[in-house]
């Protein structure tokens, strides 16, 4: 009997040590994520553009997923970010069109008056997919990604945006598809030749909100959104 008790105690001690080691191997931040990541998967992290609450058309589907099924107002994060690393999964209904904005302020009527846009698109069905400058993964209207990286409507795509100083990278499904430098001569020339020349505040902020475009028709679903600020 004593032998059984000793064996059970030893097994329990080993289990506790293993659990502690595993917990120590992955530090946990205040928000419950590892490595400094902050979850943006809950609508509690968002609000409507120039609003205090989330528009009713945006709904929380489960703990990691939210979305909308028809055209509605755009979202912005409650917090602002400068240098950051953002990741999320997204899928659209057929012919869908949306976007992720960054460094957006609320100084204009629309979020895209100030925030550069990572285009989310059903390239195969939406007219914008015929132009690489407005296709999925593009820095909308300015920098074009290669073709054939985006997955079809109804399937999950993975987006990553990295912004550090002036340098910005767009990643799509594990592939870097766009990189550019804000305020460089090349960027200034492209902005001057685009519709964004109409809005003097476009791309000028070094810190701002992350935004999600909601004003187009069709459904958009966002999953596993998270962000970390870079040193």
UniProtKB/TrEMBL annotation:
This protein's source sits in the domain of life called Bacteria
Q: Which InterPro entries match?
A: AL/BT2_dom (IPR010496)
GO terms, molecular function: hydrolase activity
What UniProt keywords apply to this chain's record, in alphabetical order? Signal
3-keto-alpha-glucoside-1,2-lyase/3-keto-2-hydroxy-glucal hydratase domain sequence ranges: 37-228
- What start and end residues bound the annotated signal peptide? 1-25
Give the protein name, as stated in the record. Answer: 3-keto-alpha-glucoside-1,2-lyase/3-keto-2-hydroxy-glucal hydratase domain-containing protein
Species of the source: Gemmatirosa kalamazoonensis
């Amino acid at each position: 009997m004593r032998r059984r008790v000793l064996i059970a105690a030893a097994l329990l001690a080993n289990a506790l040590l293993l659990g502690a080691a595993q917990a120590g191997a992955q530090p946990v931040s205040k928000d419950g994520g590892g490595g400094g990541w902050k979850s943006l998967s809950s609508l509690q992290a968002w609000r409507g553009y120039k609003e205090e609450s989330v528009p009713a058309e945006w709904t929380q589907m489960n703990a990691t997923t939210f979305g909308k099924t028809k055209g509605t107002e755009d979202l912005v994060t409650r917090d602002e970010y400068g240098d950051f690393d953002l990741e999320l999964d997204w899928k659209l209904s057929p012919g869908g069109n949306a976007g992720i904005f960054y460094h957006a302020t609320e100084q204009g009527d629309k979020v895209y008056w100030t925030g550069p846009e990572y285009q989310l698109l059903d390239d195969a069905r939406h007219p914008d997919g015929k132009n690489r400058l407005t296709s999925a993964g593009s820095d909308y209207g300015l920098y074009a990604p290669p073709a054939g990286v985006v997955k079809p409507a109804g399937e999950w795509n993975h987006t990553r945006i990295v912004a550090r100083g002036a340098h910005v990278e767009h990643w799509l499904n594990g592939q870097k598809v766009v990189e550019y430098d804000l305020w460089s001569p090349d960027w200034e020339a492209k902005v001057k030749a685009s519709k964004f020349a109409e809005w003097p505040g476009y791309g000028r902020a070094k810190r701002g909100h992350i935004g999600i475009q909601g004003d187009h028709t069709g459904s958009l679903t966002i999953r596993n959104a998270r962000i970390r600020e870079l040193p």
